Each structure stands twice: as C-alpha cells, then as structure tokens.
Amino acid sequence: MRVEITVNGSGRSDDVEPRLLLVHYLREVCGLRAANVGCDTTSCGACTVLLDGVSVKSCTVLAVQANGRSVTTAEGLSGVDGQLHPVQQAFRQEHGLQCGFCTPGMVMATVGLLAENPDPTEQEVREGLEGNLCRCTGYHNIVRAVLSAAGRLPAAGESSGSSAPGALAAPGALSAPGELSAAGER
Amino acid sequence: MSILGTRVLRTEDPKFLTTGGEYTEDLVDDRLAGAAHVFFVRSPVAHARITGIDLDAARAAPGVVAVFTAADLTDVDPISPLPGYTAGMTATLLASDTVRYVGEPVAMVVVEDPYQGEDVLELVGVDYDPLPAVVDPREAARDETLIFPAAGTNTVISYGEELDEHLFDDCEVVVTRTIRNQRVAPAPMEGRAAAAVWGEDGRLTAWIPNQGAQGSRATLAKMLGLERDRVRVITPDVGGAFGAKFGADPEHALVAWVARAIGRPARWSETRYENLLGMTHGRAQVQTVTIGGRRDGRVLAYRLEVLQDAGAYPRMGAFLPSLTRLMTPGTYDVAKVESVARSVVTNTTPIGAYRGAGRPEATAAVERAMDLFAAEIGMDPAEVRRRNLLAPFAEPHRNGFGALYDTGDFPSALEKALEAAGYDELRKEQAERRARGDVVQLGIGIASYVEITGGGGESGPPNENATIEVHPDGSATILTGASPHGQGHQTAFAMLASEELGIPVEKITLKWGDTDLVPRGGGTGGSRSLQQGGAAVRQASQELLDVARERAADALEADAADLRFDVSRSAFTVAGVAQAAVSLASLASTERLFVHTVFTAPGATFPFGAHVAVADVDTETGQAVLRRLVAVDDAGTVLNPLLAEGQRHGGIAQGAAQALLEEVVYDADGNPLTASFADYPILSPTEVPSFELVDMATPTTYNPLGVKGIGEAGSIGATPAVQNAVIDAVAHLGVRHIDMPTSPRTVWRAISEEGNRG
Amino acid sequence: MIPSRFEYVAAGSAAEAVDLLRRHGDDAKLLAGGHSLLPMMKVRLAAPSVLVDIGAIPALSYVRVEDGQLAIGAATTHQAVSTSPVVRAQAPLLAWSAGLVGDPQVRHRGTIGGSLAHADPAADLPMTLSAVDGRVVVLGPSGQREIGADEFFLGYFETALAPDEIIVEVRMPVRPDQPWGYQKFTRRANDWAIVGVATVAGRVALANMGPAPVRARSTEQAVAGGATATEAARLAAEESDPAEDMHADAPYRRHLAQVLTRRALITAGVPA
Predict the structure, then answer these.
(1) H or E element: which one contains A72?
(2) pLDDT tens, residue by residue, A128-146
(3) Which of A26, A135, B283, B336 is most open to solvent, judged by the fewest CB atoms within 10 Å of its CB?
(4) What is the rounded CA–CA span in Å between residue A120 and residue B607?
(5) What was the ipTM of the complex prediction?
(6) Which of A127, A180, A181 to mutate to test the interface with C (most CBs of C within 10 A)?
(7) Under CATH, what is the fold of the domain C7-53?
(8) Measured between CB atoms, does A113 come within 8 Å of chain C?
C-alpha cells in the first residue's frame, strides 16, 4: 500500500505492507533509528513519537494509520545546526539519561506532555510520563529535566513545585478527582 | 581550578538526545550488508523430552534461508559448568533431547526479512513429552526429581562449614525466620541482540551488547570451539545491563554459528518476551535467619542459611551465595556468625548477576534479622543498630568471612541518615496516627549496609589497563578495558585525563569494547570501573607526562628537572624562561606520544551507607506507597557528583522496586506468569518519589583517587529499608514480617493473619 | 511482536464499514485507535485477515448534548473525552474515567467505542458505562439499534454486537449536578484495575469482579433503603464472581470491593 506521511517536516511517499508498524517504518524505511522497541505490550514508551503533534507509541500504530499525517521524531526536534531543543537541553543539564535507550521516547513524551500541560507539578510530571519506562535513572533526574524545561525547577535544596518529596497520590487510591472538582461534588 | 569533584555534563549526551544511541539493532555497517535474521523456537514447557521436531512447513515457507536444530550443531561442544560445580549439569547451545525451562532455545529459523520470522516460527512443530517440573528450590533440594539424572543430584555447589548447634546457647532471646529474596528480572530497556559475520580469513566479527568485550570474546570463542584470536567482539552502544550482559549467552554463539553455516552475515534482536524468559534472572534465595542476643539490645550470634535457586543450567547465579556469605555480618560487630549456602537447579530460567549480585541478599537478610530482634525485645530498630554497629576503624577490618573492609564509619552513616530523615519527628507522627487509628499508617525502615566492589580483574588481583595518546591537534584518545553502558565513563575518564594533561574534556575521546583495539580488560560491573579503570587513566596520564617530560627536555634543551608542566597550557615550560615552552600536542607531532599502563589495586573496596525509607500503608487495602527515601551512600571521594547521584538514584529505584513490586512468578508447572512488561511490574515514574541524597565521603587508600564503587550501593541499601518500612507501618497490628514484594494482597494478608493472632 | 499478515481497508463512513464487515464476515475486525486490537494482534492472540479502519472518519468523533443526553461519537479518543469541557460538566465521572485509561500516549489513540467493544471487564470504560446507565448506539446491515450497558457486556471480551455491527455512538443521561465516586485499585498507575468501582445516581458498577462489569445491586438497594455507605458496601460483592490471578484471589477481591465501594459511596455523598 502506498502511504504519504510527513516525517520531520519532509513529505514522503512509500510502499508498505499493511502490518508494518509505524516504529519500523520510521526505523527501517526512513532510517530514523532514535525511536526504539523496548517491549511487546505497549508498556515501555521507548518508541514514542508525535503524530499530528500528540504523543503516541509508534509500536502500536500501523504505518498505514499514519497515512496523510505528520510524524515528528527525536531527530526532528533539534535545530538544523544540531542545536538542542529546550527539552533535549534540559535532559542533558539534569543528567536525565544514562544508557539512552528510553531517552528519545522519553523526550518526545515530554514534548507532548508540556504541549498539553505547560506548567506541571512533580506529581503531574510523574503521571504524565507513566507510559515511559526507564531502568537506569530511577526517574529522579528525568522529573527534574521536565520541570526544568517547563521553567519550574526549584533552586537546589528546595522541593519541586507544589509537592514535597514523596507527595504522591497512592496508586491504589486513584479516586477523588484532582482538578475536576473535589470528590465528585459540584 | 581542579575539574575533579565538579558536575561536568556528559560529553556523550548530544548524540543520545538527537539521533539516539547506536545499539546493536540499529547498526548499519557494510560488513553486515545482506544479513539474514535469526529467530529462536523456544520451549513452551518447563521440563520435557523432545520427541520430534517437524521442520518441513518451516523450510518451505517464503523467505526462509535455513532451519537448524541441535542435530546440525555437530561442530560445537556442550557448555560445561564452571569449575567447582557438580559435574554432569551440561548445557548445549540448543536443547537436544531435553528442555529444562520455558524459553530454552530448541531450534532456529533464518529468514530474509525480520517480519517473516514470527510467521515461520508458527510453522515449526515440536513434540514434547512432559516430565515433572521442579520449581521450588526447597523441593529441588530434596533430590526427588532429578533435573540432570547424570549428575545424581540437584545440588550445584555448597558453601560453608557445619553448623554449631550451641551457637545461641548464651542468648536470652533468639528469633528465627525463613524469608524470601525473590527472583527478579534485570530487564534492561535494551534486550539481547547480536550481529555476526565471518571474514574470508575465517575470523569471526561479532557485535553484541555486553559489559566487557574481552570476557564476551572469551566466552564466545569457548562456545564455538575457537581460539580467542579468531574472534573479534565489537561493542555497540548498550542499553543497560545490570549484570546480565556479561560474557555471552548461547543465542549469541548461535547467531555466529548461523552466519558461518549460511555464508552470510546474521542478526538477531530479542523480543521482550524472550528477554524476560531468556536473559538470566537475579536474586532467588530462600534464607533462614537466626539472631540471638540479650534484652539490652546486644546481638551475640547470627546465622544465615541460604538456599540459592540457580535455575535450570548453573551459571554465575550458583556462585553468588559465596558473595552473600562473604558479606554475612554486614556492618555489625557480632561475636559469633555462621553462614552456609547451597545452590540447586530448578526448571526455571538460569540465575545470573543482577545489580549487587549476592551482596543485596546479605544485607537484606541481616537487616530483616535486626528488625526481628528489635521487635522481639521491644527496642527501637535504630537503637538496636547503634548498639551493634562496628565502631569506626582506622586499620582495615576483617569481617570473619574473608572480607577486609578498607575504610568505613558505619555509625556516622546511620546517624546522618536518621538526622536527614527527621527520625524523631517521624516516630512522633507514627505514634499520633496509631493513637488515632488512622486507616493510612506510617512506617519507617532502616538499613545499614556495607558492600564489596572492585574485585578481581580478568585474572589475578584487581586491575585495569588504560592507553592514552595525545594527538598533534591537541586532542587525546583513551583506550580502556572498562565498558560503559550508561555510567558516563567517557566524561568521567576524560575528566581524569584532563586534570593531569590540561586537555579540555570535550577534546578527549574514550574508546572501548573492540577486542582488536583493546585486547585486555575486565569490563564494567561489580562497580569497578572508576576505582580501577579510572585509576588506570590517571596513572597513564601521569606516565605520559613522564615520557613527555624527557622529550620536552630535549626539545627545550633543558634539564628535565628544570621543567614545569603548566596544566593550563598543556605544555612544559622552563622555570624562569617565559618563552620556552613546548606543548604536548607539538611533542606529539614529532613523534607519537602515548602510554599504556596497568593499574593494580591492593584489593576490593567497601562502600557503605545507611538508608531510611518512609512508607504509607493503607491498612484496609494493604497498598504500600513509598513516600521518602533518604540515602547516605559513601563510596569515597566523588569524582563527578552528577554521575554519582545518577547511579545512586538508579540503584535506589531498583532496590525499592524489588521491595515493593517486582517478582518473576512461575506457576507450579514452571510456566512463567510475568513474561511481559504488562505482567512483570517494572517500576514506572509514579511508584517512587524523588530521593533525598546525603553526602558522605570516606576515601579509600587503595587507589590514588580515593574512590570506591557506587553503581550497586543504592540497590543494596534501598531494598531492606523499604521492606522494613512497610512492615514497620503495620507492626503495631502484630505483624513481624512480610516477604518481598510487599504487594497489596501480601500486606493485607499479613495484617489479617498476624494481626488476628496478636 | 509482529502481527500476522492482513489486508487493510480504510472505511469512509460507518455505513461503508458495516458493509465491509458484512462482506468479510469473521475474517474482519474493526480498527479504530487500535490500542485494544493491535496489542492482541502483535502477540498473535488475534489474527484477523482483514482490518477495517474507522479511525479516520470525522463523523464518528464528536461530543454533543441533545435532549438531555450526552452523545459521543464512537471514534472519539479517551483524551478528547476526558478533556472535553462538555463531558466534564455533564458527565464528570466519564471524563475522570477516560482520563485514567492506560497512559497519555494510549489515550491519544484509544477510543470510547473501541474500548467498549473490546469489553475487558477490568477496564475503566465498561464499568463506567454501566454506572452511568449508558447505551451504545449500534449500526448494522438492518439499521440502527440501542443496547443498554447491562445487556451489552456478555462476558470476557464478549458483547452483544453481531459480527457485522459497529458502535457509532455512546449515550448517557447528563448529570451535571450529581455527586459521583470512582475507585481504581492498581499496583502501578497505568495497570488495569485489580478492582474498580464507579457510582453515580444510585448505581454502583464494579470492574474486574466477574467476566463483565458487575452491578452491585444489593448495595444499590441498601443505599436506596437508607443504609450507610459502610453497611451498603458490605454487600458489594454479592453479585460478583471474581476471578483469581497473580494480583488477587477471590477473598481479597471481595474485600477490596467492599472497601472501595464504601469509599466511592462516601465521595458520592452517601453518609459514612
């Protein structure tokens, strides 16, 4: 099947089989190998790219579903002269990467998160990145990188945003709504 | 201004952030043009005889290059167990007549296009005649069902002496408990992979993600029956390892074998399912701790009995209890300590090294024992520890099991951690919640730890080599036998060289992992790289200056003794003669300027620390949430705080993950229930808070840098601190122990059962 | 990791999709966001030979209020549902529920129709549809029909949809002023619920307490009869048939159902 997809700003036209996953289209057909495949169950997010500006896991999108749309990968974030995008720069500044395998996906998920929520708290950052797994960093510096990119990184010694360290909502108690209203009342 | 101890940003980052790392699956290389793709048929049953393999449909499928089984591997030998292990527990690259764990490779299909691989796998028919599966190591230890009949036993190896039945005679109080240090999966984000091609000279070039190309080459060569010099291993970027990418697995050797058999390059990249079944697992000990002492808090005797599950084919995992044994007493000064261990095979994935490799198990055991003792005598767990920690020592301290702690101040580490955590305030809050009968209770967990890093090199005492060359353009290249996979050696080692040679960090390139370029090396693991590899870089830098000094003396027609090295200019100058200077770069332009050296350490070093974890436990549901983790990790002098903190964070997260969440689960028939990231609950960003790191640095005298190893410390301290915190939260309800992982059901069951008893 | 081969057809309208399903029969499956179907195809638990893509039909993605009903196009993404000011105002429980499905990337692709048709009893939206007394509007070769939540979910991954029918719309009464409660008990944030509870307007629905969402009718009757949340919640598991798995056995699930139902009822305004 023929697909017409804009990748990092350039239009492309390719013949693909229907079952070709978008992540493999990007890696093998376009030669853009920053996005990685890290799991089989849409869990890890190492394949995250932007599809029409929103973050998606490219392992769970068929290339044919991206027909007529635009895709942005980590390679498309930096400037023409290799200048780092602010999110990429923040990840470097805060040592938000170690082995780098999850990093392109983590960066793209961050770009998507900040586009929807430009001013997140630490809690919102952690929840906003719950689709991206990292084994090396323990997430501590990734959270700092995202807060830094959002202009919210506190000075050394202070806690981040409105949550003190450890101010997590209990995962088992995702109950009363946050910003919607208190506990289901008007 | 010294660069050492400063937060230098990683020079390797721009690539990782833009085009991404170049991992094995990413490789585009002329030598791999036309590569075929290897896919493995794996056993779906835990223990069975193979009675037939039907390959006809597979062979006839479109795009199939070849199909192979064990019968085709006529030119390779079985893999013998390591020395000291029971004979007869032989592994083969592909299972021939018996499979012993779900996931064991049975056959290979080779296809033109990777998308065809799984189509062809479906066409291979294997007949299995099931045998009884032994999954619980306690059952394996009874030797009723033998996994290797030829071996005559399921026991791989034992460690320790006969137990003294009077060990606890003088104790007022004795507590004993059997606890689990559960099986976990290293699960690096990049799984295993390989690419291989044979040259016309009959030499193999293999790209595999690894933790030490030299060790991988040795293992590959052995598996294929080759001399080492017939094998070249090249290390692409590696997406994490955590101990499970040392050496080589059968699949790596098989990909190489396929390339030779088909006369074309061959490639393989595993799925996450294969990774969770086929990469070695970690931990998996059943432990019985017995601790006794006086009611005033003094511990007089401690015994640790370990039953190690080695998995189906004994590898490194069977040996790791000897490290557990080595570190049995931990940071404590206990008069009588005994430690024994036994490793047994089971019908499960083989066990290998995983971040800490044997030492977390020792710390977890003694820290649980301390809390059990504290609960029994009704004393605060911090106070019990204070009364039993080794005092700070000026001379290296022998721990009774062969470990010689180089430097350490365990009481200070504990006090620093408690203070940073606000321990007294936490106990106050806990008391208030208990008095109110809050649904959500607070738990505080403590762990004091010491661990062994930087053990032996490829052979002999701990050592690592480095080669430094300065180039005419003023840049430099370092060759190291270490093997970074996220640790930032490129930046750290460049800092060390830059400090000595005055060359900016950005102009220093680190190379590693190509056995043609670096034939010797111990790799990266056991937290050895900075203390040995970094020390070697510093040593090489200084030796290079010695060589350069002689040449500079000639060049400047001066006495070598009159020369000064001006780091800020990277040049030798003559004292008192302003214009007389010659730079390293210009010396390099007249003659190659390089030095190769080996740094040998006197022995292993012993980082130490203390962690305090704070957890909330919902007593109605059993849900435990980690609120805070305060960590003191003293690994001596800190070269780059940015990198050191990153290692601590990562270790703490993995340690907490084991306590709270992660476990590889098999059913009674040996079927894995956690073979995906949906089922294996690898930690996500919402399960852990940001961590609170406290600085403490007690240098070692074993290397000029004063550094010990930091890579594994976090995972050693955090696991017991978090486990202890969860138990502490419900201790007032009568709970004395909860096995890891402290899942909601497990916690709730402990509350219901133990609470009802009290 | 790679699905079996299939043919792919992009449908331009719901009617065209129905026609394609009718023609290909059991060999065909619908593809909307693909985040229920593609994961199954990638591990080869599903292997349809034809995929009919309805994900790009603009006419199937909308949020409207008409005649006191909230009407949502079947191909509306979870993200759109959870962030829609209309849904947040008129059916805040649904907005909350949709915002908890999976993770952000999943929510950008997964659709309300897809999730309901997938009918995983542990998922958020089937339980929510039951709690809000919602209906699916279904188009087939012989026309359109509506199916209520309690008749729609028949068992594990099984609905009342015929093989040639597609969900075109999801409807529920608007309830802008009704207090509601929601509990999703997980180990990790983006896991499926070990047990879930949703309650509004006197209805209580449970997730992962049986092969389909379970209406806790004994609890509902107790509340209607003036019982406290604590008393009513004791009956939460009466109608359930919870399965056992790695995370929970039946007794623990029943216990969780009681605890979580009590909490949900309290936040929905039932006296403790």
Answers:
(1) strand A70-72
(2) 999 999 999 999 999 999 9
(3) B336
(4) 37
(5) 0.97
(6) A180
(7) 3.30.43
(8) yes
